[in-house]
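ESCALATION

Customer reports they have been waiting on this structure for their group meeting. Please prioritize. Original submission:
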Amino acid sequence: MPPRKHPQDLRSHRWFGVDDLRSFGHRSRLRQIGYDQADWAGKPVIGIINTWSDLNACHAHLRARAEDVKRGVFQAGGFPLELPAMSLPEPFVKPSTMLYRNFLAMEVEELLRSHPIDGAVLLGGCDKTTPGLIMGAISMGLPAIYVPAGPMLRGNWRGKVLGSGSDSWKFWDEKRAGTISQDDWTEIENGIARSFGTCMTMGTAATMMSIADALGLSLPGASSIPAADANHPRMCSAAGRRVVDMVFEDLKPERILTANAFDNAIKVHMALGGSTNAIIHVIAMARRAGHALDLARFDQISRRVPVIANIRPSGAFLMEDFFYAGGLRALIGEIRDLLDLDCLTVSGRTLGETIEGAEVYGRNVIRSLGDPIYGEGATAVLTGNLAPRGAVMKPAATDRKFHRHRGPALVFEDYNHMADEIEREDLAVTPEHVLVLKNAGPKGGPGMPEWGMLPIPKKLLKAGIRDMLRVSDARMSGTSYGACVLHVAPESFVGGPLALVQSGDEIEVDVPERRIHLHVGEEELVRRRAAWRPPPPRYQRGYGAMFSAHIGQADTGCDFDFLSAAGSIPEPEIH
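Update from on-call: job pushed to the front of the queue and completed.
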């Protein structure tokens, strides 16, 4: 344990506590705002990084929750200051929020570095905000606590419980097939999202909030609290109180984010049936923390940890049910024998200490290890000549008949090509075909959009088909389901083997063997590669050009090369 800090050891002391002209200027400007010396003198300054915006329904309550955090900071003797950051609302940001995850990480790191901040509270939850906030905080290296936005309430339509995302795809297919009316569709639209908060399925938002919790970066169990529950503002205030002590304890992410902590988080992810997107984000966070995590580790853990959370899209229930059943603390308690319980958390206690007294109150929602909903973990990593650096799949949310499948490819060169073709009644496609989407990866998308759950061709929907094998270098929403092979690396845009696939080629997927294979002879592949030409860059200027020049592939976490590189950045000089 490092020695407890004194007020004069605080980072902010260099801005406010020194008797010189520059500090005079800093203090006078605080007075200009209306603060007085009693607000800051000898107190840690807590930066509240808030990803609220008018366009982010997941974070619609975070403006108020920032005030709850401030209350806790004041109660503990700190000085809270709110700093807005890019919001990244998943439904609205185009072409993809993934394009801007690293932008947010950079913004968080530089906000904390350039301002007189001693510790941080990170407010987020919508898919990319959690990893973006955490990546920035890791790189900055200040005491930081993550406050999850929390899931929204259950949806409802004519007495049926609806889950955001998962039921959107389900009923959209039914509308395309002609089994529900436009009036039905409008009623579903009105009832599927009933409150502020993130998707209440085990999508990417719920997955990443839970992973942050399992890593020890949030107050224990915080990730399970519904956004509209009164427990949520109380949790926010508790986080505000706790971060003040973290500053004096010098409890930084580096002390929490050990290799074993990441293993714990991956095991929790598997037990939850979490989103495939988490793999990219966890690799990126781990590498920021100095751990060379790779896809192989996910697959090793997946084979040992079953899915025990009965939550959509792998299961039947929603996050609100999960909270009532005991939440994440209860789930961690169920798999405690698989975890390193000595890992430290932001609470100042070990993971094992934080789950003392946790119980499961709903065995239909949180199963035991002896009664899982799926015998292996949430994801499988496939490799082969079509994905030499790996691809991922979520077999727990897939029709079992596609765990071993071989069929002819139907290739779409890009998203627009696919969108034009997929509705055609005369499309030459059968249920045995493998739909292939190219140019949807990190550089090709651009930003690796969530296009990987390719729509079932309309003619097959009308024939009653609801799943088929789909392969792409894209991602898919964590709320999605089906036989989708994703994150094919390297991507087609940079000349990965996916770029060489042609309609009619046979593709084989074998999930038990973790294999994906393109049945085309090597001589023919050599000929095709010689004929392949790289497409022009997506961006000529601006952030997009920087993104294209520096983005990594999916298997390495899609971080920028200059952000994941080793080396520290000096503290700013205060002149």
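Sent to customer with the following note: The domain at 380-531 is CATH 3.50.30.80 (Glucose Oxidase; domain 1).
Escalation resolved.
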